[in-house]
Request: fold
Amino acid sequence: MNIRTAYVSFLLLCGLFSFSNAQTDSSSALVAIDHYTLRIAVDEEHRLLQGEALVKLRLLRDSVSHVRFELDSSATLLSVRDSSNKKIGPVEESPGPGRSQKEVSLLIPDTCKQGDALFIKLAYERKFDTLSALPSFIGDREVALLPGMHDRWWPVLAPQSAPLEDQSAPVVLEATLSSEFGVVSNLEPDSSYASGEKTTWSFAQNTPANLASCFVFCASKDFSQKVIEGADSASRISLYYDPARFSAGLAADVTRQLRDAFTFFSSKTKKKLAGLRMVMIGTDDGKASWYKQQGIIVGRNSLSFADEDTTVSLSSETSRWVYELADNFNIDFPDSLPWLRAGWSKYLAAKFFLAGATGNPEMQRRIRLELLSRTLNFYPSQALGHGLISAKDEKAVFNKGAYFFLMLEYVMGENAFNAVVDSMVRSSAHAPVSLQSFQQLCEWAYGSPLDWFFAQWLNQTGFPELVLSTEIAQTNRGNYSVKATISERGDFFTIPVDIVYSNNVRSITRRVLVSRQDQKFEFSLPFLPVRGELDPNYFLLRWVPRLRLLAHARTSVSFRVFDRDLVNSEREASLLLQLDPNNLTGWNNLALFSLGKLSVLKGDLGKAEEYFRRASAVEASDPTELYSVLSLVRLGNVFEMEGKRDQAMDLYKLCVTLARRKPALYGIALFEAQKFLSKKFESSDDFWCGEY
Reply:
């Protein structure tokens, strides 16, 4: 075995690697993977993963001078050996492009030629220093090892050899843990055997599988399981949870909701899944993401799940599992349009909750208004049609994508839109559904062009704002003539809109098409209306006067988090306080919270104290209630910066008491308070620029 073999082995088998030349396409691949075996031993006491990867490679080129890859800085390479167990080297390490990576490079001599097989065995270990901040972790009582682009725990071939999405091979995983653990994976174990106090589970994927997303491995010493059959009896929903962190009552509610959502999504998309496993593990610190793969979803426990709280299952914002399930029923859209895929998942989740509120118009309005409130802001964002999304505007763009589908359904009618969904599902079985083909399907079902709809919602970044004025006169026949004027402010959109006129007994809805900045309409009504409303059910993505105030506060957060633009952040927060000096909305606490963080960044701790005190004391309403309690934690952080640890501890304890009254609402504040009760606060600009 030569150095070339050694290097490619190391490259391929470091589970924590992110290789450097990601732009290389498969036509320039240097090596191919013929087979891949990964053996790992988990030491939960020391939070250590020890791995040995055995890979059979095939050389695709004659001339390869060297190979480079990135290794997670917390991982240690122990040895690179050949099939005879002889050690190979040398390996050169240097700082990588990111703070958490180091680059490893190995010179490969030209002794190996195209078509040669390379057998490599790589030993490495990875120390996990936390179980809350990483997608993957090892804890005393639970383990989650999840595929991830930035935190891999198993070796991945460099993109200069093959792009990660193109790498596939027959795969074997052998995982050894304490026999106390129960295990859940995306693959069913082929076998398991016990040796002393340890058990080894073996998982085999005999057909080529993508290495970047092959292994999902979770284990807990306290797993309980809820199982429920789907409506069609062929689908089986299983929820794995720790009863100490996820109440049995809530687990039963969640499992039933998953079954109902599973049935709804199947009916809506005509897609069938054999079953679903959901694993709740780890601790949600407000930043950790969920992971999903066909048939399995791994979620984070919230501190609110330990007590049964029915409010966590009422909306897609708190019932995260419903949204994650919806993504398993996605249509195959192009990767270049992530908003289309994410928007579709959010649309499905919203439709599930809207269907659950059938017969309750007020609840349906609240569901749509909640989605509106998470979408509208003044922060500069890109148009949907621009393709790839940056982290700066991801949430707002994805929510806008959901409303894009909801409005299309509103414009076309539900039956016509459902016919398009059926066509998309059939088409996506053969190739991704492009935006152009999607529009063509919509136009076919609608019966006329929809350029006006797609062009404005894909290419404009703003939102319409509509104002209704009405003149009423009684006619000679006893009816009432209604002259309505609809004016659009700001960005202009051509939009259909419902006008609802009502009295205390009845109401009449008239749908009109607004195609000019100021447009007049005339109706005849059989009763004298006492009230006229534009789009009272929030079918349209539009500015609602009250939500303009919330948008100022949220835009302040965006400027601070993404741009570190303190000037514009302060301006937006101050605007809310000026426009709502008496806090009629109940949203001033978010503006005050933002100003408190900005004051710390500017070095004015006295002003920061004032803002956080005010934020914790003002009346708050959904969706900003969290910040009243969280302000107590941040006030405690300021006290610690001033050397007042005892006073800070009192505030943290108070926050824990308050947060436990509504854990589903105050989960992030509860997590933060408990964290600083156990360790001292350390200040940094990164911390104060953060969202929370």
About this structure: The CA atoms of residues 246 and 306 lie 4 Å apart. The longest helix spans residues 248-269. DSSP finds 17 helices and 25 strands in the chain.
